[in-house]
Amino acid sequence: MDAEYIDSVPFLIGAAAESVYTQLKGLLQGKEAEERCHIASELYRQAGFGTLDFSSLSKDGGKLVTKKSHTKRCGFPVFRSLEANLI
Questions:
Q1: Helices assigned H by DSSP within the chain
Q2: 62 within 8 A of 5, measured Cβ to Cβ
Q3: Rounded to 5 degrees, what are φ and ψ at 57?
Q4: pLDDT value of residue 74
Q5: How far apart are CA 28 and CA 35, in angstroms?
Q6: Is 32 exposed, middle or buried (0-12, 13-18, 19+ CB in 10 A)?
Q7: How far apart, in whole angstroms, are the C-alpha atoms of residue 76 and residue 74?
Q8: 87: buried, middle or exposed (CB in 10 Å: 19+, 13-18, 0-12)?
């Protein structure tokens, strides 16, 4: 149980985002852009969040938007960090 005087939520979210980022970075490293997008989409789908549409991304970057609130809160830092590396 958390101490009442410590706001641990930011620490937990940050730790989760960093952990997932590190794992995804290792998983996607050395793969072509199309394969990286496919893997990211499959992981997202298998987690029960639906599908990701990468059509808005290009070599120059872009923005990938999802309507899933859980992912927006917890996963967004991960996808934002990987955004430049996906394409």
A1: 9-28, 33-46, 69-70, 76-86
A2: no
A3: -100, 150
A4: 47
A5: 8
A6: exposed
A7: 6
A8: middle
Read off the pTM. Answer: 0.58
Per-residue pLDDT of the chain (87 residues; tens, 9 = 90+): 567 788 888 888 889 889 988 998 999 999 988 898 889 889 888 888 888 888 888 878 888 877 765 544 444 444 444 444 554
Domain ranges, ordered by start, for the chain: 9-86
Tally of residues, the chain: 87
Contact predicate 48/56, CB 8 Å = no
Whether residue 61 contacts residue 84, with contact meaning beta carbons closer than 8 Å, is answered with yes
Q: Which residues pair with 61 in a beta bridge?
A: 58
